[in-house]
Amino acid sequence: MKKGKSFYAFLIEHRELPLLAVLALLLAVVNVRVPGYLANSWLNVLKNGSINMVMCCGMLCVLLVGSIDISTTAVLAFAGAVAGKLMGLGVIQNTFLMFALGILIGAGIGAINGVLMSYGRVIALIVTLGTSYIVRALIPMNWLLGMNKVNPTQLTQAFKDSLINHELFGLPFLVWLAVIVVILTTLFLNYTRTGRNLYAVGSNAEAAQMRGVHLNKIRVLAHTICGASAGLAGIMWLAFYAAIEKGSATGDEMFTIAACVLGGVSVTGGYGKISGVVIGALMVAFIDSAIPQMQIGNSMITEFIKGILLLFAILLNVVLQRISAKQDLAGRNI
Amino acid sequence: MKKVLALVLVLSFVFAGCAFGADKPGKGITIGVVYKQSGNPYFQAGVAGFQKAADELGFTFMHDGPDDGSSDGQIRIVENYIAQGVDVLCISANDPASLVDVCNEAREAGIKVVTWDAPVDPEGRDLDVEPASAKVIALTQLDSMVKSVGGEGQIAILSAMATAPNQNLWISFMTEALKSGDPKYAKIDFVGVVYGDDEYTKSFNETQALLEQYPNLKGIIVPTTVGAPAVSKCIMDAKRNVKVTGLTLASDMKEFINKGIADETFLWNPTELGYAASFAAVAFVKGEISGKDGETFNAGELGTLTIEKAADGGTISFLNKLNVFNNDTVDAWINIL
Amino acid sequence: MKKIKDFFTSWEFFLIVLLAVVCAVFYYVDASRVAAGLQRRPVFYFANVVRSMRPYFLYSFMTLGMMLILAMGDIDISVGAIGTLSVVTLGVTYNNLAVLGGMNPAVALTLSLMACLAVGGICGALNGFLCTRFKELFSMIITLATQLFFRGFSYLIIGGETLTFKDPTFRSLSALNKLLDIGGMKVPVSLPVFLVFAIIFFVWLHMTGNGRKIFAIGTNRSATYYSGVQTDKIKFWCFVIAGLMSAVTGIFFVGNSSSSVKADIMDGYHMYAIAAAVLGGFSTDGGKGSVIGAAISLVIFGVVKFGLGTLFGFADSAVNLSVGVILILSVLVPNMWEDWQNARRVARRRAETAAASKA
Question: What does the alpha-carbon distance between residue A280 and residue A267 come to, in Å, rounded to a whole number?
Fold first, then answer.
């Protein structure tokens, strides 16, 4: 009995463990169906998943304070389009400047979202829905891309090589960049006062306010971080795919949110761990890469299977958490 | 006397000028141009053709395409053009069936419907203007691919949306040819069609899956301008020896053609397509043609075009020009397409 | 007197004023463009606007369903996908029964329409079931997953095909897109149908106990539950109704797109429905909003999109920009107004207290 209690207590502490089990199960199934899948594709999963991973880190911060941001992919496309246009015009040639510019643009839009959401008291879903409409509509304006897109010839070779053709310990810089962002987010959320305040605001805003936390400032900060991560993701996108256009990544913000929820982040705020988010993001990237290779019917039913798997994983996660919570209560003899 | 002569000369020039200005055949005509999706460079080139023709003929035109590339978005735009009372609609349809009703409403209001690049079903249009017959377009790509892979090996197709009518027609011609038992296709192993939905990432991911699934894949045919750069970039990153061909813009593919990932790609000139469509539109308003089989109209620089019977039962007019982009020609096209 | 004052400070009144202002501006621009010779004839007149608003009015039925969900403090982003699946069901059922099976076309069409509505209801029921059984999950997440599922299922059924029916029975659905002649005025069929639905929803939501319970759930779910309301049951049925309304939208969509059926339609329609409902006074926080407001905001969106497209020559994408701006302002402005009112009230009280203490 005692042993059981500690096991379930452990499960409660680590809500992402059931998800890890689901991920392992899926991997096993796919590996049986497509022999050698893991050996062939692990690098592609990491590469394709890293842009989403970066956005997930920002989304985690926003979800933690009980807010949401569905303008991330619009910001991604906008930041990429502006930076790509400037590089095409020859204004910026330096790779680092590109990344700095992307982060700045993203942070700016994120901050606007945050201010409207906190000081303007407009619901986050509405604000970010509005900004995503606006920001995406700016891209085909004549002063930006017009009807053109950014294509490889407009980018410098150094920039195009920066993330894909440089490797460290066998992994391209693209993946390392995501790793760095994850580490920074972990440090920020777990070891700084401001980071802990994000959790405090999300789980109990009034209590946090009593303790002297400036609610609105924290909310604006969370949105700014989310915007910045989306801006960074835009430049990563530009460097990885060497192209960006008005419609880039449309609708993908939902997969960012899905990855966070899969990872056990609460959409009402206050709970969520970076480790869970990393697993969630990997899972989404894995589903994306595995389904076309499974050769189930034609490639058009990817969405169908993606939906079922997402639903299955999310619900299983909930059920497992419920069981562990019940066991926890039983263990306490209440 | 000299002065008088000079004066007469000058005056005659002035009159000729006035007369010429007034006689621009398209003066007072308004054309509403509808294309598949905004933000697509292919259609910018198409609109440039309308602009060129407008400068020559003197008509005015408006152009727009839906944000999301949907046919109900196109219906909205057509409704707006009907409300504004244009004389001709030049439509590149996302789907041949959906726009029939709204086009017929336009025709009831006295508006002529000329389709270019992608047709509306024959009962909803007056004339279709196309670059070349679907069979020629399909087989050009297939033969180029066969040449690139040296006549044998596995090849695949990456298409746009699964519902895209043009692409589906071309693919059916390609698969027909492959099954026909023609000896030049005998050693070609066709592994299947995947759909990139005209989205960069989806095309990229589908290509990754193809490359992993078929380690011996030799070539991918990409009959869509959005998919081609994504496929090529994916192959370049994977450092695989897979050849690409298809319908592409020169500016998108320059890098990949120079690096040998694609030997040659094709596209008609959408500018010429728009140019021809606007001449047909003006001829319709002037009553010079009525869209019947066997009629001809003057298409400016492109000479005289003939209206033929189309495979779908309507009438069609072909430009019959396909441009080839390879290492030698791509630089000349890069600023045009 | 109080009632009159309430009316003039209500959100619906503001929307009416907004609509009037927008119309006035467009009318002026139209007239001056004609005077300047930029247009051959006026564009912005009643019949023309009403006619061209047909495509914008497609998602009005979806908006009615979305209202219910928003009033409960939930959100449903799968409504567009439900519409797609219903439309595909409609087409495929008819194809199998009448075209391939040789059934009497009229009977087949009736059966297909019923199947279409049933699928809408079933999809809504699935959403409702999941949202009431898994309360830990935000309805947005659940409907995100079911949206992918519904959309994928449509592809599974019909693939990349476009079903086009040339027979007069199925083509009669196009009549849903025709203009009715009511007393010399041309009115699209969808308008009176929408009005009937809107009146039913209005009576139900604002005048019956069951309707008020929906708002109560949005305001405070636990309190409503403990006061004896079966919140889960109501929530479930609201999702079912939202699904049905999506199916109705789907039927009109088929009418609008020349009776053709394919699987890649109605993408992003949930956003239009949410935008219209929010401008109408509904909030994703739940508990407020009115049917009249939503109906007026549908008209506003239609007029704005029509006017910007035809008179100002805005491209389709730029029209979306205006939707974004309207969306944010429609919530921001009343909030600021409220803040200002509160500040004024506090200042007045302070002044009163100060005066009293002085005395």
Answer: 14
**Domain range for B308:** 20-130+270-320
Report the pLDDT averaged over residues C228-234.
91
CA pair distance B99, B120, nearest whole angstrom: 7
Q: Give partners of A (≥3 CB pairs < 8 A).
A: B, C
Torsion B70-B76-B80-B83 (CA) sign: positive
What is the tally of structural domains in chain B? 2
Q: Which residues contact C305 (CB under 8 A, 6 or more apart)?
A: B76, C56, C319, C322, C323
Contact A258 C141 (CB under 8 A): yes
Report the residue of chain C nearest A135, measured CA to CA.
C321
Closest-CA residue in chain B for C57? Answer: B76
Q: Which helix (H) or strand (E) holds A66?
A: none
Residues of A in contact with B254 (CB under 8 A): 152-153
Its CATH architecture, for the domain A7-331, is Orthogonal Bundle (1.10)
C contact test, residue of B33, B71, B99 with most C CBs within 10 A: B71
Q: What's the pLDDT at B16?
A: 46
- Domain CATH number, residue B277: 3.40.50.2300
**Residues on chain A touching B69 (C-beta within 8 angstroms):** 247
Count of CB contacts below 8 A, B vs C? Answer: 105
Q: How far is it, in rounded angstroms, from Cα A104 to Cα A255? A: 24
The reply to whether residue C284 touches residue A305, judged by beta carbons under 8 angstroms, is no
ipTM value: 0.86
pLDDT recorded at residue A219: 93
Quote the CA–CA distance of A233 and A222 in Å, as a whole number.
Answer: 17
pLDDT at residue B17, rounded to an integer: 44
Rounded to an integer, the average pLDDT of B233-239 is 87
What is the enclosing helix (H) or strand (E) of B335? none
For tokens 């035809």, the residue is C310
Check whether residue B284 and residue B189 sit in a common domain. Answer: no
Q: Please judge whether B99 and C310 are an interchain contact, meaning their C-beta atoms are less than 8 angstroms apart.
A: no
Q: Which of B43, B67, B205 sits opposite A48 (nearest CB)?
A: B205
Please count the residues of chain B.
Answer: 337
